[in-house]
């Protein structure tokens, strides 16, 4: 099976997961896949929007349900959390709509918003609209820059047999480093 066949078959699932976990980079790459004809434009936008929406709803729910848990309280001590709350208090609707576009606030913001009195239904409605706009912007950017990205990195299928294992190893190393760093943070604070 070629890399293009794998991307055609699993690209939307990867886009859904990547939009929620990683964010813009994966969604722009989804736009490149649209440019290559591997997935459909509306499906890419829907997968990216849904992935982002679901992840933000989960983080909001964690902030709401576990606001007194030590993990959430530890997150509340971070400068990004305080910045998020400060901006939220001045312009709540605009902040809920725009936090996903602000570097460094994407993950902490829905947790922070979850600790406030904002009704869950209002967050859900604004989050759904914002996720659609965000996904449309970044899939479209990937599509528009697809030709340039393709020229810069070469044709994916020409290096697919090497690229896929390398990406898998890089992902595993990155995850291992992330969890090791987190474990050290937790043991250092306890």
UniProtKB/TrEMBL annotation:
It holds the Pfam family VTT_dom. This is Membrane protein. Keywords: Membrane, Transmembrane, Transmembrane helix. GO terms for cellular component: plasma membrane. It comes from the Bacteria. The chain crosses the membrane at residues 12-33, 39-62, 92-113, 125-146, 158-179. Residues 23-143 form the VTT domain. PANTHER family: ALKALINE PHOSPHATASE LIKE PROTEIN, INNER MEMBRANE PROTEIN YOHD. InterPro entries: DedA_domain, VTT_dom.
